[in-house]
């Protein structure tokens, strides 16, 4: 079971005070009422609901919805078609709303508004738990911080709005939410390290670091957890792997903060206070400044590995291919782990 699957068991239900439909967008978009799925219709209608969800409680003008749904190729009767989709969505959500309650999808000039409590939409519950967790962490309450952040991350079932990549506002929101998720993961790992839960932190971060090597705060937390678990050789390997990736793909070195952490690790000075000072929440984040590499992963393909997906989540294949057969000292396994179940590049069958 992955860390994300394990966390899903901690998912708190919405408050009973807010009866009505519950929307889930942190993964395949779905709606439920009293444990039963609510049908949302064809892709265009689902995209319309998603566009309203990202502006929950705000009026979205009809002209904006038409432009975002059809871009440069709207139907001849665009307004009537939009109204038809709205009517179908309203009827789909009506049984969940109840006969004596106002509709959750309403017209309000000059457009439409989706009126749901934030607790009825998983993304808003995620951001509320994330904000609360960060506040607890700032107040040096790692137990409460870890609890809130773990519950926040447990709401994720996959990439948000992944089915709507052709709709730019939803693609942008998906990218933003993924960055927030990674920040929540970093904060949760920090709280876990303070509590001494190093094995949990290693399990949670190994796959994420492989997928997001430019998140150097994430890398630093994994190095710290490995070191405190008695796996210093692997912690050093993580640093060298990350540094090689940044140099080969972007021509840049690791940040001064990660270099300081590396030096402290070599000197056996990786105490809790030093780690918090080097990898604090205020440490500059460079991941967003580095574009995703492009082009085929030639070294990986030459060594019998599939081509990796393009974009920001593309794993560091050049560094991976050059190191995947390398064994670190003291008989430890190579890093990243060369397991088909966890490797982002999978061997050919």
TrEMBL record:
SMART domains linked: BTAD, Trans_reg_C
Compositional bias annotation for Basic residues: 323-332
Feature: compositional bias, Low complexity: 340-349
UniProt keyword Transcription regulation present: yes
Keywords from the UniProt entry: DNA-binding, Transcription, Transcription regulation, Two-component regulatory system
Annotated segments matching region Disordered: 279-349
InterPro entries linked: AfsR-DnrI-RedD_regulator, BTAD, OmpR/PhoB-type_DNA-bd, Sig_transdc_resp-reg_C-effctor, TPR-like_helical_dom_sf, WH-like_DNA-bd_sf
DNA-binding region extent: 14-116
Domain of life: Bacteria
SUPFAM superfamilies: C-terminal effector domain of the bipartite response regulators, TPR-like
Positions of the OmpR/PhoB-type domain: 14-116
Similarity field: Belongs to the AfsR/DnrI/RedD regulatory family.
Protein name: BTAD domain-containing putative transcriptional regulator
Lineage start: Bacteria, Bacillati, Actinomycetota, Actinomycetes, Kitasatosporales
